[in-house]
Design goal:
Blueprint (H helix, E strand, L loop, with lengths): L1 H16 L7 E2 L8 E3 L1 H9 L3 H11 L6 E7 L2 E6 L1 H14 L12 E5 L11 H19 L3 E8 L4 H13 L7 H18 L4 H13 L2 H24 L6 E4 L2 H4 L2 H10 L4 E3 L3 E3 L10 E2 L9 H15 L2 E7 L3 H13 L6 E5 L2 E3 L14 H19 L5 H22 L6 E3 L1 H4 L7 H16 L14 H23 L3 H20 L8 H21 L9
Parallel strand pairs: 5-6, 5-11, 6-7, 11-12, 13-14
Antiparallel strand pairs: 1-2, 2-4, 3-4, 8-9, 9-10
Helix pairs in contact: 2-3, 4-18, 6-7, 6-8, 6-9, 7-9, 11-12, 12-13, 14-15, 17-19, 17-20, 18-19, 18-20, 19-20
The chain binds one RNA strand of 78 nucleotides through helix 2, helix 12, helix 13, helix 14 and helix 17.
RNA sequence: GGGCUCGUAGCUCAGCUUGGACAGAGCGACGGCCUUCUAAGCCGUAGGUCGCGGGUUCAAAUCCCGCCGGGCCCGCCA
């Protein structure tokens, strides 16, 4: 809706100057209105006139009507204020569209979005969590924006890790008392330790890998059993945080179906291909000094080679390919893009997120040194329960547990989604699970408070807006901006925009709540309708982050 | 050493793509606000050379160059 206001301002400015120029619009701080243009500074140069005077002349030419309530020229800026009619239309639009407000029509563009893709050698830790949360939120945002999104989890079943886990499971067994993924991790850690102490067993690992690549029946079965076993545990964890993948794609598929051979054959015919002891690609032309090795000297393929095949497959099955990778994959990502460019396939859009460290400690599944997502989730729910228990003595156990679970899990998603991916995060329990203002409870509390108010009022479509105070205006403006924010989040692939928007919206609401009474007020219907719209937007935005809005807390 | 990336209040972040009006929040500190829709809230005070130095511009946190500091990568691992 906000864009309608912008369009109108632009159109009216265009008419006023009578020149076909691009009109820069920006949102000034509140005291200067709702929209502002610096157009006059540019015109000043061209016309050799004082910008102040140009602004005043232009402002006079624009009559306030429809969505524009007021036009003011100040020091060369022209500032615009939106009208009560705009407010009414915003509310009506939200009421009409409800859950679809902010969404877009189907675009008929197929997107394959790969995220999480953790090795099946143990449970997900917080780092994987960042990947999964960014990926899942983005998938939701893109779907909402009209894209046809399929999420995929790429299972690295051909790497050394899984071979070591298989070796460990055979040698030490699988602890059936533990959750699947933790049991596999236990075998994996034991095996690593064993191999360090008995390096002569390394050749066993190499043999397993070779046999798996060759498709030796019983070995294939062993690998799949362990991978599936571990994945079952991983899926349970993902389910807890409301994440589901449409497809799990095994790396080995691309060896079995021959695509990786086909890809290598195609690469051989290009000028980038070199064959010394091993096959490799020279990517100097793409600004990459490091050569991309395609095969080992024993002829087996490397991870990146199979990943190229996977991406060729994705390229054929989608219009847009998106990957979420950790910062350690920066170089691989560039190599991958270059290889796909050479093959004339769709180049993936790769979102790189920086690592999460925990008080300076770097996580390693191999050494069994990590904080698992499961532990984090449990801890978060526990802390949330303590809070609910403290504040809602009047409620029964069932209520407290339910709220604690939703709040605890959502808080993790929110904490991680809020920060831009390129930012290195130092994970601190005290902050992630502290129910501070920038966290989820602040947002959920706004939603719950609105629900309480609306219970007491019968909403009518027959309301009018006579005037607006600063709190009402702030809310209207934010509500009207939601579609624009979603659009931006989808285009720039930044879920963090949604989270930060939610903080702003909740903040605007809480301030409104403090100063503007709804029930029994002269403006009861307008305000109730405004809050109803706010509630819808809060819920829609929370859903984009995979968080269920709370009716009560 | 090379490549990529980040550097905004004591701490965690927003703003940077499309340069504009005194740089915004939260946490922490201090001081206030519950007879009225849940105080998981609100208001106020203190706290900033936007890493440093140049450049472009009427205008730079934002664009360009250099430097410094942190992170990641530079394996016939994944």
């Amino acid at each position: 809706m906000f864009e309608k206001f912008e369009e109108e301002v632009k159109k009216r400015l265009q008419n006023a100057i009578g020149l076909d120029v691009d009109i820069p619009l920006s949102e000034p701080s509140e005291e200067f209105g709702d929209l502002s243009t610096t157009l006059c500074f540019e015109l000043a140069r061209r016309l050799r006139k004082n910008p102040k005077i140009i602004a005043e002349e232009l402002a006079k030419k624009i009559k306030p009507e429809n969505y524009i309530k007021e036009v003011k020229a100040v020091n060369g800026y022209i500032n615009f204020y939106f009208s009560e009619k705009f407010a009414e239309d915003v509310i009506k639009t939200v009421k009409k569209l409800k859950g679809r407000y902010g969404s877009q029509e189907k675009k008929n563009i197929k997107v394959i979005l790969e995220h999480t893709s953790a090795n099946p050698d143990g449970p997900l830790h917080i780092g994987h969590g960042r990947n999964a949360i960014i990926g899942d939120s983005l998938a939701r945002i893109l779907k909402f924006s009209g894209y046809d999104v399929e999420t995929q989890y790429y299972v690295n079943d051909m790497g050394r890790q899984l071979a070591v886990a298989v070796f460990g499971a055979k040698k030490f067994g699988i602890n059936k008392d533990k959750k699947n993924d933790f049991a596999v991790a236990e075998a994996y850690v034991k095996a690593n330790k064993f191999l360090e102490e008995n390096p002569e067993y390394e050749k066993e690992i190499a043999k397993l890998m070779k046999e798996y690549e060759e498709g030796k029946k019983d070995v294939v079965k062993e690998f799949h059993t362990i991978a599936d076993y571990c994945l079952k545990g991983i899926k349970e964890t993902l389910k807890k945080i409301n994440i589901f993948h449409d497809k799990f794609v095994f790396e080995s598929e691309f060896v079995r179906n021959g695509l990786v051979y086909e890809v290598v054959e195609r690469l051989k015919k290009t000028k980038y291909f070199e064959h010394n002891e091993v096959m490799q690609l020279n990517l100097k032309e793409f600004g990459i000094e490091k050569k991309l090795i395609l095969t080992r000297s024993d002829g087996t393929f490397l991870y990146t080679t199979r990943d190229i095949a996977y991406h060729v497959w994705k390229s054929r099955n989608a219009d847009v390919v998106i990957d979420i990778f950790g910062a350690d994959h920066k170089l691989v990502a560039e190599q991958l893009k270059a290889a796909l460019r050479i093959l004339n396939e769709k180049v993936p859009d790769i979102i790189i997120y920086e690592f999460l460290t925990i008080e300076g400690m770097k996580m390693s599944t191999r050494k069994g040194r990590f904080i698992s997502l499961d532990e984090l989730i449990d801890e978060s729910i526990k802390r949330a329960y303590e809070e609910v228990d403290k504040r809602r003595k009047d409620k029964d156990e069932k209520f407290k547990k339910s709220v604690a679970e939703k709040l605890g899990i959502g808080a993790i998603r929110f904490y991680i989604a809020r920060v831009a991916p390129e930012k290195h995060m130092v994970f601190k329990f005290s902050e992630a699970l502290d129910f501070e203002k920038h966290g989820l409870p602040f947002v959920q509390y706004a939603h719950a408070r609105i629900c309480r108010i609306l219970e007491k009022i019968e909403l009518s479509n027959d309301f009018s807006v006579e005037s607006m105070d600063e709190y009402e205006k702030r809310l209207i403006k934010l509500v009207s901006k939601f579609p624009k924010i979603v659009n931006k989040a989808a285009e720039e692939k930044k879920p963090s925009l949604i989270a930060n928007y939610l903080i702003n919206l909740a903040d605007a609401f809480h301030r409104f709540y403090m100063f503007d009474r709804v029930v029994g007020s002269e403006k009861e219907q307008f305000r109730a309708n405004l809050l109803y719209s706010t509630k819808i937007v809060l819920a829609n935005a929370l859903n984009l982050l995979g968080i269920e809005p709370l009716e009560e807390m």
